[in-house]
Design goal:
29% helix, binds flavin-adenine dinucleotide, 7-stranded mixed beta sheet, FAD/NAD(P)-binding domain, globular, alpha/beta, single chain
Length: 444
């Protein structure tokens, strides 16, 4: 495994294949290509954006650059890890989710030249654009944890819901667990879906109780954060839950090494000036890796000092290049990075990019809406929804801070349908309108 694990290792074969053959599904395969709109990244945000604009601009004017053979609905991986859904159910071929009329350049973007309005791909092809949307998601940096890449291959009790190649290991590891420490980690970097590291923990607790193994196991949440969740309302409820379920939470602990031969996990105490470490024995280890924006973006001139696409948090327009916009996890927008946030951003981006394309100015402003369905058991969920200020922005006129079965069904059964059939087709801009209606116009 390389020093920095790319977003999905599974894409590397596709990358090699595409660069080897110079393969692309786009319309002019040998000449220099140019598009009115080029979207880099065909994940949640990129696919939704391409759908909106392919409809508007017509065939051949929009292209998506993405090397991945498969498009995954990653929020389902929490349930895959708990044995409730399959990996297969969470993915569809990329070709089938990209909009008709949009060209798919099945390759990786390796560099950006915003002054010349070009993107260079892994095969060395330069693609020109009038407007660019960057939607590259996050890179998973598993290799930054010493011993972890090897641990994944030699120790079947080490798993991670964050990657298509490791998520299928989570449930078998839980089934094999008989006693000892089940440790769940949260890294010292921004991550996508900040609730996911603990959702799988509650599902594991549920499973272990049902299987009669909970009395022999200690569940431990070692988090780099100083709080259990960033929004006070939901954090208070989660603190009650960890207490009720006898889950030990250790704050400011960052995983730095895994020693599979001794079944040890080493954590740094982030509050210790001398970098004191603490070693835990594990019988089960669920790792949430450190993350960053993808390397080609980080190495470009388009990023802020933290390495994320430097956009206005309200308009999603690049601070320096007005013909560049961003959506989703790879941007500097200071909200919790989720597909729900990308959906809400897609409506703002559509209006603002359309305005700029027609020679006007951006007008719509994103409020930071994001959502995290905090699954707290096999039939329970707290649907956290909030804005930039961490203020709840709940869709339903009930207290969403409570664990509810209805919210669990929303997460398990309704959201995937909404994702595949509405969001990816460019018709879902988040629940703002529904929220206003349900609150009789009295909500933001
Ligand atoms: C375990 C887990 C649970 C989650 N739970 C939830 C949840 O309950 N609710 C929720 O709303 N969100 C959840 N999320 C987060 C959600 O999946 C992401 O926030 C969302 O997918 C972000 O969309 P995006 O378009 O920014 O990135 P992605 O959907 O990750 O897409 C990025 C795309 O960019 C492509 N790409 C990367 N590098 C390059 C390159 N160099 N060139 C070209 N293309 C490139 C990738 O192949 C990928 O297709 C969860 C995520 C995980 C992993």
């Amino acid at each position: 495994m390389s020093t920095v694990v790319p977003l999905t290792r599974l894409t590397s074969a596709a990358i090699r294949q595409s660069s080897g053959r110079g393969f692309s599904t786009s319309r002019t395969s040998h000449s220099k290509k140019h598009y009115q709109l080029l979207v880099v990244g065909g994940g949640s945000g990129g696919c939704a954006t391409a759908a909106k604009f392919a409809r508007k601009l017509g065939k051949g004017h929009v292209a998506v650059v993405d090397p991945s053979e498969m498009h995954y609905y990653q929020p389902m991986w929490t349930l895959v890890g708990a044995g409730i859904k399959t990996l297969q159910a969470s993915g569809r071929p990329m070709q089938s989710v990209l909009p008709r009329g949009c060209d798919w350049i099945k390759d990786r973007a390796v560099s950006f030249d915003p002054d010349r309005c070009t993107v260079t791909t892994g095969s060395g092809e330069q693609i020109g654009y009038d407007f660019l949307v960057v939607a590259m998601g996050m890179q998973l940096n598993y290799s930054q944890i010493k011993g972890l890449p090897e641990a994944f291959t030699v120790d079947r009790s080490v798993c991670s819901n964050y990657w298509s190649e490791t998520v299928t290991q989570t449930f078998p590891a839980l089934e094999a667990l008989q006693q000892g420490n089940a440790i769940f980690t949260f890294p010292n970097t921004p991550i996508k879906c900040a609730g996911a590291p603990q959702k799988i923990m509650y599902l594991a607790d549920h499973y272990l109780r049902k299987a009669g193994k909970r009395d022999n196991t200690n569940i431990i949440f070692n988090t780099s954060l100083g709080v259990i969740f960033g929004v006070k309302k939901y954090a208070e409820r989660l603190l009650d839950i960890v207490k009720d379920r006898n889950i030990q939470v250790n704050y400011r602990r960052n995983l730095v090494e895994v020693r599979p031969d001794k079944k040890e996990a080493v954590f740094v105490d982030l509050d210790s000036p001398e970098g004191k470490t603490e070693t835990f024995q594990y019988s089960f280890l669920h790792v949430t890796p450190p993350m960053s924006a993808p390397d080609p973006l980080r190495q470009s001139s388009l990023v802020n000092t933290d390495g994320y696409l430097d956009v206005s948090k309200e308009t999603l327009q690049h601070v320096q290049y007005p013909n560049i916009f961003g959506i989703g996890d790879c941007t500097s927008v200071p909200t919790s990075k989720t597909a729900a946030a990308a959906a809400a951003q897609s409506g703002i981006l559509q209006k603002n990019l359309q305005a700029v394309m027609s020679g006007g100015k951006t007008q719509s402003q994103y409020d930071g809406y994001t959502s995290c369905p905090l699954v707290t058991g096999n039939n329970k969920c707290i649907l956290a929804e909030f804005d930039f200020a961490g203020q709840p922005l709940e869709t339903f006129p009930i207290d969403q801070g409570k664990e509810r079965r209805t919210m669990y069904h929303l997460k398990r059964d309704v959201m995937p349908e909404l994702y595949w059939n509405v969001m990816l087709k460019g018709y879902w801009n988040g629940p703002a309108l529904t929220r206003k209606l349900l609150h009789l116009g009295m909500s933001k």
